[in-house]
Amino acid sequence: MRKPAVLLLALIAFGACAPRPVTLAEALGLPPLEMVAVAGGTFEMGDVFEGADEDATPVHAVTVGDFRLGRFEVTAEAFAAFARAAGRTSVEALDGEPLPATGVTWDDAVAFCAAYGYRLPTEAEWEYAAREGGRPIRYAGTSDPDSLRLFAWVADDTASGPYPAGRKRPNALGLYDMSGNVAEWVGAFYQFYPAPGAEPERHDMEALAMRIARGGSIYQEPDFAQTFRRMGTLRDLAASDLGFRCAADAE
């Protein structure tokens, strides 16, 4: 009568010892990405400051679960290694300089993150993390415009391109360059924020060409670096100031 219990214990033990599936990145020998664990919660998403940004209103409550987010924007070196190994179009990488990957379409970013078993962050996850767990912070790391340049590369017309990742201060979660340097692709999104009490509109991501980028860039004014600002663009845009970072569910 004890055999079923013994068999069940054996199956549990086998499951506990079963090897984790190898990701494409591991199979290709790509370097790991440094991820930051973010504890989830509920926050008021959108323009919680003036309530004047039509793309970021009405402000509405959103709950995000625990997740992980890349500490840095994906670098050109990392993306170039992936592209070479996977036979995809590469981007320029300079040895020794951890410059963010740019000239990368939304689908390129999705493919890179998927190789690691990751994904792009949702809009809500991105804003929640930039705002240090949903706090009312105008920029990633500060609400003081006079302190912004300690945390972000913005409005620098003299720059020949984005700066290496991680040269400015991180926000309180240890995330670098969430505001400025390069804008960042995000994953699934609601085209319009829902009216109070209404359900969000969900759209077929494959049928729609529009995507959302967050955080602003080195070529844009500080206004675009605000944590609630949304920038809509075509999914096949490959711009010199548009990159990404990866996200994943909590382990």
Short description:
By secondary structure, the chain is α+β, with helices and mostly antiparallel strands. The strands form three sheets. It has a four-stranded mixed sheet, with helices on one face. Strands 1-4-9 form a three-stranded antiparallel sheet, with helices on one face. It is globular, with a radius of gyration of 20 Å.
Task: Tag the structure with descriptive keywords.
251 residues; alpha+beta; paralog of FGE (formylglycine-generating enzyme); four-stranded mixed beta sheet; three-stranded antiparallel beta sheet; 9 strands; globular
CATH H level, superfamily name = paralog of FGE (formylglycine-generating enzyme)
The CATH topology assignment is paralog of FGE (formylglycine-generating enzyme)
Describe the biggest sheet? 4 strands, mixed
Task: Kindly name the structural category.
Answer: alpha+beta
Mean pLDDT across all amino acids: 88
According to CATH, what is the class?
Alpha Beta
Beta-strand residue fraction: 5-15%
Looking across the biggest beta sheet, what order are the strands in?
A: 7-6-5-8
Using DSSP, what is the number of strands? 9
What Rg do the Cα atoms give? 20 Å
Low-confidence stretches: 1-15
Integer tally of domains? 1
**Alpha-carbon distance between the termini?**
37 Å
CATH architecture assignment = Alpha-Beta Complex
| Coarse morphology | globular
What's the helix count? 5
Helical content class:
10-25%
Q: What is the chain-wise order of helices and strands?
A: HHEEEEHHHEEEEE
